[in-house]
């Protein structure tokens, strides 16, 4: 895409404006670092445009505190107070989905993941948000906790102009086929290769 211009223009009858405003389904997958980081970077851009942001973190421990969560919660408060950017919701499976107020259960991760997806599907049907981050959502799909075909169909039929970004390793092929944007993070080098553990400001 030289200078941001498509190499070809599809004969779909749509105007350039209509294509530019089409809802995007993005998948960040692969073994390398940076999948979630890239998704939250996109969400930051969306927030700056005034989009309504919703983050759903799957298979996350309640004890795991990520820097992006603190930053986006503060951005949500900034919007509420000063009208800057857009509203923000942040939901994490490991601490119990916030809409249900149920604490997380170590014995029932599959049910919790299915509950999270059911809520996301409801919100998509209602056009509740403009930009969704489904962080580490590929794992419930890979492990069979959530049906891949149902997810692909729901995302494909979502109304309006709702953007969705999904992160995690081993994204199923059906999801990759349905996506508009697929990025595979490939590890070349990593500090853990030489015994270095995660660092504050880098991993969290």
Topology of this structure?
Layout: H1 16-20, E1 25-29, H2 35-48, E2 53-61, H3 67-82, E3 88-94, H4 109-126, E4 131-135, H5 138-142, H6 148-156, E5 163-167, H7 173-178, E6 181-184
Parallel strand pairs: 1-5, 1-6, 2-3, 2-4, 4-5
Secondary-structure element order, N to C: HEHEHEHEHHEHE
Q: Low-confidence stretches at least 5 residues in length (pLDDT < 50)?
A: none
Enumerate the strands of the largest sheet in spatial order, edge to edge or round the barrel.
Answer: 3-2-4-5-1-6
Helix content: 25-40%
Rg: 18 Å
Give the biggest beta sheet.
6 strands, parallel
Outline, from the CA principal axes?
globular
Commentary on this structure:
- This protein has 204 residues and is an alpha/beta fold.
- The protein is built from seven helices and six strands; from the N terminus they run H-E-H-E-H-E-H-E-H-H-E-H-E.
- The chain has helices at residues 16-20, 35-48, 67-82, 109-126, 138-142, 148-156, 173-178, and strands at residues 25-29, 53-61, 88-94, 131-135, 163-167, 181-184.
- The protein has a six-stranded parallel beta sheet, with helices on both faces.
- Helix 3 links the parallel strand 2 and strand 3.
- GO terms for molecular function: ATP binding; corrinoid adenosyltransferase activity.
- Keywords: Transferase.
- Its EC number is 2.5.1.17.
